Amino acid sequence: MRTLLIAGNWKMNAGPTEAKELADGMVAARQGKDDSSDILICPPFISIPAVAESFSGSHLKVGAQNVHTEDNGAFTGETSTSMLNDTGCEYVIVGHSERREYFHEDDALIAQKAKKVLTDDLKVIVCVGEKLEDRKSGNHENIVRTQVKAVLDHVDANNADNFVIAYEPVWAIGTGETATPEQAQEMHQFIRSLLADAWGEDEAEKIRILYGGSMKPANAEELLSQTDVDGGLIGGASLKAESFSDIIDIAESI
Ligand SMILES: O=C(CO)COP(=O)(O)O
After folding, report:
1. 96 catalytic, yes or no?
2. pTM, whole model, 2 decimals?
3. Alpha carbon distances (Å) from 222 to 83, 184, 231, 237
């Protein structure tokens, strides 16, 4: 049985002051609840310490939205895994579609980042997902296969415990449009089959595959109750303590 992971990706929202308030609200909302799911928030880099402070002593965890592949040096504007470890981060998202699209990150770089995260004892959430035209032309599985395999070629099976995949169809991100539960289950099952091909059935069964793309309290139950949907990577709805907490309640009830 896989432990569900309910993760918030705040993207470029909430500087330290706002982040602290929002994180305090989440801690208050989960106080006294015996959550069995893992709960994670990934704020902008600059707000990670504020959120970590707010979460200390609670069961909520903090992560990052991106990372560089080097330890330190002349890489203006970048942040390394050792810096993230220093702030108490436990997870790092890599390969989000916004980074692929706006920052021209390709599969090779994303694989390098994933490898670096795992080497430095952090957990990685690798994002994959097709664009609308790929879905419409029926090419969605080919796109996702290429994205997943690019990373698996560089990561060993013994990292399975620290490895998470997030399936985020690009056409469902921030659009209010969600994959149907059937579309999500079909793709998650396909991704698990790719993991099984690379690492064997036993390891593949352990790996959490999150769904992301307009997940909110109103649709979380039907998505999270799919066999191969092991949590959510939530954008907009993670920017309100109440709606994020409502999604956690739904996860806990499944
Ligand atoms: O991109 C996402 C999470 O990484 C999803 O964002 P939304 O939940 O706002 O659609």
Report:
1. yes
2. 0.98
3. 38, 10, 12, 16
Q: Judge if the beta carbon of residue 234 lies within 6 A of ligand 1.
A: yes
**Domain-by-domain residue ranges, the chain?**
35-236
E-strand ranges in the chain read: 5-9, 38-42, 60-64, 91-94, 123-128, 163-167, 208-212, 231-234
Distance CA(66)–CA(74), nearest Å, equals 18
pLDDT per residue over 50-103, tens digit each? 999 999 999 999 999 999 999 999 999 999 999 999 999 999 999 999 999 999
Mutate to test the pocket of ligand 1, among 65, 233, 243, 247 (most ligand atoms within 8 A of CB): 233
Residue type, 192: R
Residue 66 Cβ contacting ligand 1 at under 6 Å: no
The answer to whether 198 and 160 are in contact (CB under 8 A) is no
User: Using one digit for the tens of pLDDT, what is the confidence trace for 9-66?
Assistant: 999 999 999 999 999 999 999 999 999 999 999 999 999 999 999 999 999 999 999 9
35-236 to CATH, choices 3.30.420.40, 3.10.20.740, 3.20.20.150, 3.20.20.70? 3.20.20.70
